[in-house]
């Protein structure tokens, strides 16, 4: 946030200054947390840190000190988090999203587990993202081995029960292929598959999500598996694990969103 970046270092969180310096350096490291850091959600003054021990910590940081505040226990290790107005949505490859109240940011409270209604036989929540208009949830149905994306209405008032998170639409995005990440950029949602393909979804009409195409950024090259996807302005950044022989490990590709097609 701002000129600070936060990264997990085993069971600790490190803060780095990234502005106005020629070399990156740690400005502070948190006390040891209960498990390896699995996710970080950077808020305004308060950051939220999930660990492999099924804990979620509120981490306050002044200019000098990272202090561990309230922690709550979850039935899973948080792997993805998203701020949705007054709540924090937390995914951890289980059958539900944990919904936390942030009325008091330094004391998050677990409100309820949110399970998507519908015809899913055995749902597993993989990722969650969104913007100021909607929430998008990536779900795998283990019963039929297919992946879906749900659009939820973003809450504007206080969230008290699962009924306050309304489903707007859903779309089938992939079959058995391992789909692991969602990234939103303007009205395009990208669902990343480990094999190296990206499902491009049109979110202009949130009540009618539409798969536009399957984009293969490899261009015939054998790059191996995708590790991660990031978006910034109109750029899409892909990081590759590499192929079986170790080639292309850590390779990074940058694409202009406007060149991917409609």
Write a brief caption for the model.
The chain has 262 residues and is mainly beta. The protein has no helices and 22 strands.
What can you see in these coordinates?
With 262 residues, the chain is mostly beta strands. 0% of the residues lie in helices and 54% in strands. The protein is built from no helices and 22 strands. The strands form six sheets. It has a four-stranded antiparallel β-sheet, with no helix packed on it. It has a four-stranded antiparallel β-sheet with strand order 8-9-10-11, with no helix packed on it. A four-stranded antiparallel β-sheet has the order 12-13-14-15, with no helix packed on it. A hairpin with a 7-residue loop joins β10 (97-101) and β11 (109-114). It starts with a strand and ends in a 6-residue tail after the last strand. The mean pLDDT is 85.
> Rounded to an integer, what's the Rg over CA atoms?
19 Å
Please summarize the sheet with the most strands.
Answer: 4 strands, antiparallel
Distance between the termini: 32 Å
Order of helices and strands: EEEEEEEEEEEEEEEEEEEEEE
Tally of strands? 22
Helix vs. strand class: mainly beta
Average pLDDT for all residues: 85
The percentage of residues in β strands lies in over 45%
The quaternary state of the protein chains shown equals: single chain
Please estimate the helix content: under 10%
Low-confidence segments: none
Shape: globular
Q: Largest sheet, order of strands side by side?
A: 4-5-6-7
